[in-house]
Every structure is written in structure tokens, then in C-alpha cells.
Specification:
There is one protein chain. The protein is α/β, with parallel strands linked by helices and about 130 residues long. It has one domain: Hypothetical Protein Aq_1857, Chain: A. The protein contains 4 helices and 8 strands, in the order E-H-E-E-E-E-H-E-E-H-E-H. The strands form 2 sheets. It has a 5-stranded mixed beta sheet with strand order 3-2-5-4-8. Strands 1-6-7 form a 3-stranded mixed beta sheet. The protein is globular. The two termini are about 20 Å apart. InterPro entries: DUF779.
């Protein structure tokens, strides 16, 4: 019997608590990690649909009810790692929704084991995502 796919993205309980606060104010949420300007490769939290994704983005999974996307170019660097979304005190320099709370989301990562890498959750580009992702 095959095991469940290895998730590409996880989340800490502290980040879940922050998402609960943000959901109360903003409704459904999503994450995008660009690797570009502002906080560099910090994950940014938006109201669902506020950030438009497309073919240059990759859907990596869902964490705590939030879709998680990454730019395709950033994914090339991170595709061999499992990401964990966490939150720490301090103000980031981004447009992410958590900034007014005095915290910022960040990524912790580790390399997949060979066994995990053979059984990863599939990814979809941003154009494919609405039609194929769970």
C-alpha cells in the first residue's frame, strides 16, 4: 500500500495562530514566495486572490487551509527541500498581512531524504492550479 505523498510545505503551530488572527480580519488567505524584492525569499501572506498567480508561479501545496505558491525561478533552487512556514517577532519589509502584528513569516528548510524525494506531492504551475490542484 503506497504511503501518502511527502508534503513540500509544512507550518508551525505559531504560524497557524498568526493565520487565525489574520483570517478573522481578512478572510481566506494565500502565501506567495518570490525570492525577489522586499523581504527577498520570505513568504508573503495575502488575502486569497489578492496576488495573481500565473505560469511563472508554482503551487506547492496547502498549509492550514492556505494555498502556497512560489515563483518558478525560486522553486528551481528550493525544489529539493521541505519548507516549513514559521513566524518570529520583528517587522519585515514587505506587503505581507502579518506586518502590523509585529511579526513576520519566514521559511525554515531541510533537504528531502531519498525516500521522501521519490514520493513528493505534485506541483502545478499557476495557470494549471485552479483546474487540477485539490
Amino acid at each position: 500500500m503506497p504511503s501518502d505523498p511527502t508534503p513540500r510545505v509544512l507550518i508551525t503551530s505559531a504560524a497557524e495562530a498568526t493565520i487565525d488572527l489574520l483570517r478573522d480580519e481578512h478572510g481566506p488567505l494565500m502565501f506567495h514566495q518570490s525570492g525577489g524584492c522586499c523581504d527577498g525569499s520570505s513568504p508573503m501572506c495575502f488575502a486569497a486572490g489578492e496576488f495573481r498567480v500565473g505560469a511563472n508561479d508554482v503551487w506547492l501545496g496547502r498549509i492550514y487551509g492556505c494555498d502556497f505558491f512560489m515563483s518558478a525561478s525560486q522553486f528551481e533552487y528550493w525544489k529539493h527541500t521541505q519548507l516549513t512556514v514559521d513566524v518570529v517577532k520583528g517587522r519585515g519589509a514587505s506587503f505581507s498581512l502579518e506586518i502590523p502584528l509585529g511579526v513576520r513569516f519566514l521559511i525554515r528548510s531541510r533537504m528531502f531524504t531519498a525516500e521522501e524525494a521519490d514520493n513528493l506531492t505534485p506541483v502545478f504551475d499557476g495557470d494549471e492550479y485552479p483546474n487540477v490542484a485539490p
